[in-house]
Amino acid sequence: MAKNSKSIPGRGLRVADQIQRDLSVIISAELKDPRVGMITLTEVQVTPDYAHAKVYFTSLRDSPEQIKVTLTCLNNASSFLRMHLGKCLHIHTLPQLHFFHDMSTMHGMAMSKLIDEAMATSKFQSESDQDNSPESGTNDESAS
Fold first, then answer.
1. What's the rounded Cα separation, in Å, for the pair 138 and 65?
2. Mean pLDDT for each consecutive 10-residue tract of the chain (144 residues)?
């Protein structure tokens, strides 16, 4: 009787990492669709039965229209990519590929901008508070 894959710790993560590495090579070398452009695969999540894989990507093109076009092209090419992935990856069940745009970098940039704005506001307020406070110990009348 074959052992259950759950008994092998981290196997799903290793398979997901290998899928990410192989797909990045396949997309850059084999996928000739110019609408896809330069993308980076950020994460792959594989279901426990290896039937489906969520592939997250980022793109240099940040406009919503370009992201939508890239997403449509990748999902349309998923069977082509899966066929080439099957040549590289030898597992019993080859997962269906589902592509998603990774928003974490955009959220991170927005958070960084908010932090920078808060720090600038805080610095401005502390400088204005120091300018308005009376200086102690430098009274000209007590020196004469």
1. 63
2. 53 92 93 87 92 92 87 93 92 92 83 88 75 57 49
